[in-house]
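[recover] target loaded
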């Protein structure tokens, strides 16, 4: 079986741009929710002086991640901010002093077995840096079953247009990636590693193949540049031929999937003790004067990053966290970059202008290109009629919101947005059904 997808313009303008480290901004705003799960809990207060690498918020629950400062300075305030998803979360605002003094707590962790390795990854604040933001340590927490996984897939596909931050990781920090592989071999006791990368990244492929030839058990799988090649289910199937079951995880088919930049970060953290405090971010789009890759402290404002790329060519029509296929609109230029921000894409009016929506012609293009073989036409119909039970039968909860359906629709219908709303309707229906069953007991 061949998983489907679409061809999208690559627009990898910054693939040959090594990241530039930006000057420290005057202010950073660090949200307590930059990951899937519960927000972190602040452990500093207004007026406190903080240093680079210092813990400023602890994980609050199992699926959560600690937060550290990427700057030295004074906590100006702890306030609520509205995220791009519309949620209100606490945020720590730090007025920087420009000194970038490093905290004495930044020391390499004591790692000697699987448990200490998992704990170190947890304390590092690591989350999926490819965009998902899932706390990384959870992926390695299968010590109750030593044979749970026999393969690791390293996601270097980077299939979205514009984004090249993962590509730069393989070009500039390939040694860190392979140090990370050595650590996983040692502590997870997994022998088989596959680096999945699209064929439109020749320099990164060459670097990975050069090091893989010297490393036992590592294969570089060069994949067609077909979106969404980097989707977890798609990548596992196209690299290993394993089909993740409905509602399942890669671990259900014996696979751990990790983003290439996440792996490079973990290796560096184990060596240095510096937690996740900065990101390599691609700044690009038709409204950006000087597209480039930058290294910036987490919490730096989108406006400051855009300014570092020469500012706007003209008035931007839309600014996104991430790429044009799955990116989320940035509410304003004061919004900060997050742990999982891999790109800021600013579009001009011509690129962002939504086309006119016309009635569905039942051509089936959305169904034919959905990588998970869902039927967006039927889902949209069931959602409009409020038929939540039908949405369950149509498996709308499997939708990864990749946007393939909207992209290929000749009527330009907002199919992925409808799928997202339909998933919310299904969750409400399932919660009511569960409450009803519990009430009947």
């Amino acid at each position: 079986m061949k998983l489907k997808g679409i061809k999208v313009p690559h627009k990898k303008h910054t693939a040959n741009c090594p990241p530039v480290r930006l000057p420290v901004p005057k202010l950073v705003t660090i949200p307590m929710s930059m990951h899937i799960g519960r927000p972190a809990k602040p452990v500093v207060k207004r007026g406190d002086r903080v240093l680079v690498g210092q813990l400023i918020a602890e994980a609050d629950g199992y699926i959560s991640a600690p937060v550290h400062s990427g700057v030295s300075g004074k906590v100006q305030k702890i306030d609520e901010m509205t995220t791009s998803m519309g949620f209100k979360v606490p945020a720590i605002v730090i007025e920087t002093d420009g000194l970038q003094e490093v905290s004495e707590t930044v020391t390499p962790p004591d790692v000697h077995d699987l448990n200490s390795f998992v704990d170190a990854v947890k304390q590092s604040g690591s989350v999926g840096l490819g965009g998902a933001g899932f706390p990384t340590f959870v992926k390695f927490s299968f010590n109750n079953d030593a044979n749970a996984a026999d393969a690791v897939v390293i996601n270097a596909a980077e299939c979205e247009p514009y984004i090249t931050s993962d590509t730069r990781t393989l070009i500039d920090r390939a040694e860190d990636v392979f140090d990370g592989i050595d650590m996983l071999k040692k502590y997870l006791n997994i022998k088989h590693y596959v680096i999945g990368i699209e064929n439109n990244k020749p320099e990164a492929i060459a670097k990975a193949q050069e090091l893989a030839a010297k490393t036992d058990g590592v294969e570089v799988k060069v994949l067609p540049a077909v979106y969404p090649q980097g989707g977890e289910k798609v990548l596992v199937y196209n690299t290993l031929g394993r089909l993740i079951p409905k509602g399942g995880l890669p671990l259900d088919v014996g696979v751990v999937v990790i983003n290439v930049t996440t792996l490079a970060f973990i290796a560096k953290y184990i060596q240095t003790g510096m937690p996740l405090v900065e990101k390599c971010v691609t700044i690009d789009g038709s409204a950006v004067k000087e597209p480039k890759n930058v290294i910036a402290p987490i919490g730096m404002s989108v406006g400051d990053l855009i300014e570092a790329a020469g500012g706007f060519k003209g008035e931007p029509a839309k600014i996104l966290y991430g790429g044009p296929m799955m990116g989320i609109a940035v509410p304003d230029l004061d919004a900060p970059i997050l742990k999982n921000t891999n790109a800021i894409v600013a579009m001009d009016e011509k690129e962002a202008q939504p086309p006119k929506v016309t009635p569905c012609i039942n051509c089936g293009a959305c169904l034919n290109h959905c990588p998970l073989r869902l039927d967006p036409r039927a889902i949209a119909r069931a959602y409009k009629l409020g038929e939540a039970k039908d949405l369950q039968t149509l498996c709308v909860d499997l939708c990864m919101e990749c946007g393939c359906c909207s992209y290929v629709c000749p009527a330009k219908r907002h199919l992925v947005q409808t799928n997202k709303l339909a998933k919310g309707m299904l969750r409400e229906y399932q919660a009511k059904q569960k409450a009803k069953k519990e009430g009947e007991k």
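[recover] notes: The longest strand covers residues 73-82.
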